[in-house]
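Async update (no meeting this week)

Hi team, since we skipped the sync, here's where things stand on the single-chain job. The sequence we agreed to prioritize is pasted below, unchanged from the tracker. I ran it this morning and attached the output directly underneath so nobody has to dig for it. Comments welcome in thread, and please keep replies under the output.
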Amino acid sequence: MPLPIERPGKIVCIGLNYRDHAVEQGVPLPERPLLFAKWPNALIGPGEPIVIPEVATQVDYEAELGVVIGARVRNVSVENALEAVRGYVCVNDVSARDLQFSDGQWTRGKSPDTFCPVGPTLVPAADVPDPQALAIRCTVNGQTLQDSSTSNMVFGVADLIAFVTQAITLEPGDLIATGTPAGVGAFRKPPVWLQAGDEVTIEIEGIGELTNPVRAA
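Output:
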């Protein structure tokens, strides 16, 4: 299916932004948002395959609430930040953990082709009165592996937009992936990695279900 959003100029991602995700790693909560980037080559739409590249063997899923910006904003206040939101989508921040952890920074492990499924549609901001009160889940082959709520975020959507725009101008179409809750494959015992033939679904209350198959390169 085609992308349900315009191709963004920036994909701004937030690390360690759910309290339960910090607990499963045994690390303290961040004092401020931790930003990293995915590149637009990673974008795919609903139903398109996540393709595991030959260089990666430890590929993980991450259910995330995606925020699509609708207005050019710089130094916006927390109080006014949600006025800049055009709408919301489900995002799967697919991650090659072996590349991410061995590189010492996250760009290559987060940005392989097909590693940013988004969808199923863009839900207008007006239809989501409180982005901090949404159930969020990830299932792999029908098994629930993540089950949380956006109320568990360390920094909410408004706080994230305000923080980003202190240094980075956000433009219409830019996408913010707001972090993932507990249950990712890397911190399970034993770890759970995506394999060819799997099917991954990200479900967020009021936003919809984003499903993608997994295949090998």
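Quick observations from my side:
The chain has one domain: 11-216.
The chain has a mean pLDDT of 96.
Reply here if anything looks off.
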